[in-house]
Specification:
Layout lengths: L1 H13 L3 H5 L8 E3 L14 H9 L4 E8 L5 E3 L20 H5 L12 H10 L4 E6 L4 H14 L5 H4 L2 E5 L4 H6 L7 E3 L7 H10 L4 E5 L5 H9 L3 E5 L4 H8 L5 E4 L4 H5 L3
Parallel strand pairs: 1-2, 1-9, 2-4, 4-5, 5-6, 6-7, 7-8, 8-9
Antiparallel strand pairs: 2-3
Helix pairs in contact: 9-10
Length: 268
């Protein structure tokens, strides 16, 4: 009996919890459909049709931009400074919810609100959605995630685990995690840090995925992160040859509008 008890204790020490097994499991996928993915030559729509098209093309990671309407509703939109095919005059001023939701992109593509995003995730339980909150400060993050927090009340744990917030400021971390989010993707570039300090921050706070613009890709930064088991995704790339050059310096994956997962498998 004492040997059985000893075995059980040792097993409990060495066996990872279910949370540890699942944490950052989504990073096994190399491609992120940027702004829900491009569709028929159109990008940045964040539309329902773009989401479905990305799903049909084999994506498991779909990024959705989040903005607030003028009356405080949470919708899938890349800010308000451009039309992206919706017929209105942009003045960097948000539309009301009713105006936004009734304006198709390029006359064909259906706008999404947060509730509809959750419904799509219920229908496709293998999909992870990366949330790109549009803002220019941690105050904007706080305002936006206050609405996110309201919308996720009562949402199944399975769906919450598949919502992956992106953060731009280190101050965002406490705000976002206060709403129960576990995995995050840290978009590096709006703060001045060295490769060593970024890697140390990520390691300290268990952030195992970082996003970099093409212009900010630095072999030293990628190497410092790679050594600590932190993966990097570079945005936004639509060329396979260009992706290959980044793979050579241990970049892990990419945001893309049009390269599909089946194509990237040929490079690995």
């Amino acid at each position: 009996m004492k040997y059985l008890l000893l075995f059980m204790v040792l097993w409990s020490w060495s066996s990872p919890t279910e949370e540890e097994i699942d944490s950052y499991a989504w990073t096994k996928h190399k491609l992120i459909a940027h702004a829900a993915g491009g569709i028929k030559g159109k990008d940045y729509t964040n539309s329902e049709e773009a989401f479905r098209n990305s799903y049909n093309n084999g994506y498991k990671l779909i990024e959705i931009d989040l903005s607030l309407t003028s009356d405080g509703h949470l919708v899938a939109r890349h800010g308000w400074d451009e039309t992206y095919g919706q017929e209105f005059k942009p003045k960097n001023k948000a539309l009301s919810y009713n105006k936004f939701i009734k304006l198709p992109y390029y006359l064909h593509y259906t706008p999404l609100d947060f509730e509809r995003i959750i419904k799509l995730m219920k229908k496709h339980p293998e999909i992870y959605v990366l949330l790109d909150g549009k803002g220019t400060s941690s105050k904007d993050t706080e305002k936006l995630y206050r609405q996110v927090g309201e919308k996720i009340k009562g949402v199944d744990e399975d769906i919450l685990d598949r919502l992956i917030p992106q953060m731009y400021y280190q101050e965002d971390l406490k705000i976002i995690r206060s709403y129960g989010f576990k995995d995050l993707l840290y978009i590096v570039g709006r703060e001045n840090h060295s490769p060593e300090s970024i890697a140390a921050f990520c390691e300290k706070h268990d952030l195992r995925a970082v996003g970099l613009s093409k212009a900010r890709v630095n072999e030293s930064l990628v190497e410092n992160l790679y050594k600590k088991g932190i993966v990097t995704y570079v945005y936004t790339i639509n060329d396979l040859d260009e992706m290959y050059t980044f793979f050579e310096i241990d970049v892990h994956g990419f945001y893309t509008d049009y390269v599909i997962p089946e194509e990237i498998e040929e490079l690995e």
